[in-house]
Design goal:
This protein is an alpha/beta fold. It has two domains: 197 residues, Spore Coat Polysaccharide Biosynthesis Protein SpsA, Chain A, CATH 3.90.550; 93 residues, no CATH class. 32% of the residues lie in helices and 23% in strands. The strands form three sheets. It has a seven-stranded mixed β-sheet, with helices on both faces. Strands 5, 9, 10, 13, 14 and 15 form a six-stranded mixed β-sheet that branches.
């Protein structure tokens, strides 16, 4: 196990049950890993104490770059201002944490992500860039070096009156049936990626397993067509006392390195792997029903 890896969980708002499941999965597959949880204020996180998590409030971090973001931020979004600020501030806080120990690799995970493998092997296969994303969604992101250039890109944007005016005009003119436009983390990631600088996307179909972008997006795998949206079929197997998910592509099974339970998928995020012991045969059977039978999946 590479002891120079830190997992970073950021969470805004009320602590949901699935955050506990996500952190437990990291601990199950990385027994000695360093895990941080940064939240937007005082929370009851006592349920996480047994996982040896280091807990912080985001307001406890400070830097010149973060102060500049706070002073120049302009809200152009349909989401709440506090939420949008938190999502952006986490990048600045990550750089503060990274500067304290620049020899480490930092893994930023969304709280609806379940890990089913060790990141040691995966890190060695990633492009050599400061920020490495699994597609255009930062739910499973690796920080391998200084990211101040990306932070500068964000603060420069907010200080450019013309860019803010264009963004606000685009936001105000968008129609309800159009793809949602909001000036926030995702937009900055898209534009910065296009600059071809210190950020890259990695091939999610790795020899360590498939890095799921969204359980509701087929990505070439067999899927269930549910009432509201599709959902990848998942075949569960027990391996060395752990529950391991596989996607199906015709007759071929592909191990999933992570499952991203985005949106309604959170309803089927379970405690698949417990630090207290292996899953039972009955649990494996039940999960296979939930993830492979449409009639049952539509009830969940």
């Amino acid at each position: 196990m590479n002891n120079n890896i830190t997992f970073l969980f950021y969470h805004y708002g009320q602590i949901p049950n699935y955050l506990e499941f996500a952190i437990e999965h990291v601990r199950k597959f990385h027994l000695a890993a360093e895990i941080y949880l940064i939240t937007d204020g005082i929370k009851d996180t006592s349920m996480l104490d047994r996982f040896n998590v280091l807990k912080f409030k985001i307001e406890g971090f400070d830097s010149e770059e973060l102060a500049l973001l706070k002073s120049t931020y302009s809200h152009v979004s349909c989401f709440s201002e506090k939420y949008e600020r938190f999502v952006l501030e986490r990048w600045f806080v990550t750089e503060i944490i990274r500067k304290q120990r620049p020899d480490r690799t930092y893994v930023m995970l969304d709280s609806d992500v379940a890990v089913f493998g060790r990141v040691d092997d995966l890190i060695n296969k990633l492009p050599d860039f400061p920020i490495v994303l699994s597609g255009r969604n930062p739910h499973f992101t690796f920080i391998k070096g200084e990211i101040s250039e990306f932070l500068q890109f964000i603060t420069d944007y907010y200080q450019d009156d013309q860019k803010i005016s264009v963004a606000r005009l685009r936001f105000n003119k968008q129609k309800k049936d159009e793809q949602l436009y909001t000036l926030g983390e995702m937009q900055f990631l898209f534009e910065y990626l296009d600059l071809n600088r210190g950020m890259r996307m990695y091939d999610v179909d790795t020899s360590c397993g498939f890095v799921d972008g969204n359980i509701h997006v087929p990505q070439g795998f067999d899927y269930l067509q549910l009432h509201r949206r599709p959902r990848k079929k998942v075949l569960w197997k027990r391996d060395e006392g752990r529950a391991i998910p596989y996607f199906k592509r015709g007759d071929k099974l592909v191990k999933a390195f992570i499952l991203h339970f985005q949106g309604p998928g959170k309803r089927v995020f379970r405690r698949f792997n417990s630090i207290d012991g292996p899953p039972s045969s009955l649990q494996i059977w039940w999960w296979n029903q939930i993830f492979q039978k449409s009639w049952l999946a539509n009830l969940m």
